[in-house]
Amino acid sequence: MQLTPIFVAIIIAGVVFFLAGIMILIFPPNKINNLYGYRTKNSMKSQSSWNFAQKFSGWEIIKSGIILFICSLVGLQFDFSQKFELLVGLSVLIVVVSIFLLRTEQAIKKHALTEKQL
Questions:
Q1: What pLDDT band is residue 8 in, cutting at 50, 70 and 90?
Q2: How confident is the prediction for the chain on average, in pLDDT?
């Protein structure tokens, strides 16, 4: 196993994601703000959406961190060329973050529709 910069960076990103998710779950921002929490147009539409987004995104960030960590450990088992390693590492990071954002935004929209029906 050879420690390479891109996979070390992804390991660190995975740990940071995991810890950020834990922080959001333990210390969720109670009020809509521009500094802390999962802040998007959809999450900031109402206090109910905000509260839902914080809880949902916290768990999704934790899952994303675990996935990044595992992918980087698997990547460290192979001896890739530097260019291929960079391509794989960045692709994994982009895909995981994109899935996190898409899943969270879809869940917030679904929550908002359910809330309107009540």
A1: confident
A2: 91
Boundaries of every domain in the chain: 5-117
CA distance 23 to 18: 9
Single-letter amino acid, residue 3: L
Cβ neighbours of residue 78 closer than 8 Å, sequence gap 6 or more: none
Tokens linked to 27: 């210390």
- Determine the number of helices (DSSP H) and then strands (DSSP E) in the chain: 3, 0
Q: What residues contact residue 104 under an 8 Å CB cut-off, 6+ apart?
A: 38, 53, 56, 57, 60
pLDDT digits (tens, 9 = 90+) for 48-62: 999 999 999 999 999
C-alpha angle 115-64-69 in degrees, rounded to nearest 5: 165
